[in-house]
Amino acid sequence: MKNNDINKKTPNNHPMPFTRIEVVVLSVIDNCLQVLLAKRTDAPYAGKWALPGGVVRIDLDSSLEASAQRVVAERLGMTIPNMEQLCAVGGPKRDPRADWALSIVFKALMRVEGVTANAGKRIEALAWRSVAEAIEDRTLAFDHAELIERAVNTTRSQIDSLVIPPGLLDEQFTLGDLQAICEQVLGKKLDKSSFRRKLAIRNVVEPIGGAMRGGAFRPAQLYRLNETYEHKG
Amino acid sequence: MKNNDINKKTPNNHPMPFTRIEVVVLSVIDNCLQVLLAKRTDAPYAGKWALPGGVVRIDLDSSLEASAQRVVAERLGMTIPNMEQLCAVGGPKRDPRADWALSIVFKALMRVEGVTANAGKRIEALAWRSVAEAIEDRTLAFDHAELIERAVNTTRSQIDSLVIPPGLLDEQFTLGDLQAICEQVLGKKLDKSSFRRKLAIRNVVEPIGGAMRGGAFRPAQLYRLNETYEHKG
DNA sequence: CCAAAAGTGTTGTGACTACACCCATGT
DNA sequence: ACATGGGTGTAGTCACAACACTTTTGG
User: Is the CB of B216 under 7 A from strand C?
Assistant: First the structure.
């Protein structure tokens, strides 16, 4: 048993897992679905890229969701609303620092414009990386490539059923914007007419009266997410 | 800080959550969806009903799934295949034994015929209870009523999309059996013809050549789950 | 014959894909 | 005018719920 595990005791005197939060932050940037990775300063995997994460602090956190928010604030210097719990993974080989490591994994979607994540505690640098690359990358720290893949699959299922993960979009957007982003997340083209009919049937979005976006060509109606739309069984 | 938390340390000297597994075991018994509850012998909530559960043992368990299997074996004296991870919940007020309690919650479906769960360690008795009652019951220990509700909702979604949770059925069954069980889980009647068409389209089941079940009336074809059926996008 | 459960057909609705087509605008 | 992206319309297919119907058995 490693020396740093000696004192981990429970009410029944059993040592407890080393319990962490990991966060998969996804965004569509440059027409490509990307994931936010942090370059580690400390061992293990010093200098390698990993998901931003941190230890659950029972003295600071009122829930797992609060833990995730604190970790994001410390590591990225920002807040990310609408994080969802993805899964929990645990086992003896996951992290060389501990005999047994447990991670609660969260995922979040965000748009990146204007927001700059700043490398915080124990992070040398932050970078966005295409998910396709990240999932294939054998040099990613811990089991993080697998966690990214799970987050992407879950997000694709949500988009498939037109549950638009909040945070992915600006408050105002055109239907073209929305379709382009969904296509990037799914990694395939969608039919414009079909896509719009689905949006209409399920009341996913509502037009913003009078607001248009002018560009080089024909101006487009601006929409917002309809927060109260009903899911179809 | 409670005395039993003094020694819970991590590699960074932070105390760790009191980490447990809870298991929601569901079954259709007497034409009613029921959940397996354990009467607690020890404080807290001694004498109250709770989900069977236990501490994660880093010296014994090779993964969270292995933890769940061990807990089920110790508490129920049996094995339950096909447990799925449901969610993780954590916070300072969940369990009076610890400053901060984390539970990884699993769910499983089973058929109950022939199998007898035997009350194991720290359990006075086991009983099946209708989920409708259990969810309403304000005397259930911890936050377990809420966990049961989440397990039931997840299971209903699976049945809705005809992902039949394994373990729910005998190896051989008639389409009438299958429909009746699905109806009990969902809490509503299904149309026979529609139900069968969906099963056929998605190749969920396959007939067992020649095998029939004779009863009081017309015999019925026996089926088995087709393990390799394809999910529809 | 009758009750009960197994199993099949039929019809209308609505969502989906694929594709064609019109509209408004800046250059 | 025309390229570009915004936006609409149509036709065929498929899955669906609802409901009626036929079949096979024991009594």
Answer: yes
